Amino acid sequence: MPKPIRYDHKNMLREAVGLHGASKNELTREATRLETAKHGLLEDFRKKKQGWLGCPDETKMAEKTIKLAERKSKLFDTCLVLGIGGSDLGARAAHQALAHTAKHGMKLVFAGGNTDPDELETVLAGLDWSKTLINIISKSGETIEPMSAFLVARERLVKTVGRKDAARHIVATTDAKEGSLRKLAEKEGYDVLPIPKNIGGRFSVLTPVGLFPLACAGIDIKKILSGADSVKNDFVKNKATKDPACLFALFHVLGDTERRQNIHVLMPYSSRLQEFGRWFRQIWAESLGKKYNSDGDVVHVGPTPIAALGATDQHSQIQLYMEGPNNKLVTFIEVTRFDSRLKVPHNAKTIGDLKFLAGLEFGRIIRAELKGTADALTANKRPNGRIVVADISPKTIGALFMFFEIATGIAGRLYSINAYDQPGVEEGKVATRSYLTA
Ligand code: PA5
Q1: Residue ranges of the chain with per-residue pLDDT less than 50
Q2: Model-level pTM?
Q3: Per the CATH hierarchy, to which homologous superfamily does domain 5-44+224-425 belong?
């Protein structure tokens, strides 16, 4: 079976980019540390401290999610998805990437990711409540942005369909036992999809958090899980130094700690993967930006992720990456096969210097742009890597999610920090509450 994704890291090496790249000696020196990180991560999984690596094996959960989505799809034509951060970005990313593969699904509308009243009002005003399902997603069940949006949506729903009927329009994805949303769901009789305790928000896309809205949209979530499974199995079987996700983590942590390359750019050459870049930006930033290491020492570590888009950002960001400070590691995502075979018309032959475009497929043009940019970065001694996917399908998207979850977990161990908490976010939440309750 061909692998759903491949990681080409040759331009991350010293042979390609001189002293700005990783040396063979460095990689040999780090082999034991990388293997230890891998074993630590697997140990966390075996001891059930972390559950995200096991998501592809949760077939019962997937079946339950699909059944509920199918039942609701018979009743409603739109699903309003309310969540923020890890309870939002994964479903958004997968939906943008995979909407073209959906069969007989509901229309998804996302909100709750901001408290901007103008945005929320516009989204809600466009809904026909009698045909709308609300999926409120909040692990804690206490988060201001999605919960305040939910309260507005619920009130409008009740006004239209009545209190008695409203409950069947609502599915709550939340903690199995705790939180205000859980209590409300029990009191009002919503269907509830539980989020396992040992899976944190930004690692939860392969739980009902991401899978339920995607199933509602008619996307094949079993194929997403099978793509994730393939990357997970490779990770479990491979030696860490041969595993693509482990290597990605190692190159990035070494780049940051040894060469001050602390800006990590993900640049898919596909508009369907733009939201995926935002998902990556969150998991990398919130997991790795930490004040304390695992021994409790103040360290203030963490790279700054950037979500760029090829080819668009060649006309926005690449000048900086090429000639500005050499403090970035760029990773391209290359799509080998696009659905559309769109071509530039042959009449381009008559248009001066653009005649070389005549008859060219756009898929070929965008890949040439990626390769040209990678070559130029390499010539300028700027390290860059490339993740190659055959196409944009449920399988490759599942694989990409698992690849970056593993890379993040490994990077957290290499930085010696806890990749799974977010005390800095909590601090801001507490301060906000104090303004709102004063
Ligand atoms: O990754 C995380 O843990 C966060 O981004 C959370 O997902 C986010 O704060 C939303 O939290 P909750 O699902 O509890 O509403």
Answers
A1: none
A2: 0.97
A3: Glucose-6-phosphate isomerase like protein; domain 1 (3.40.50.10490)
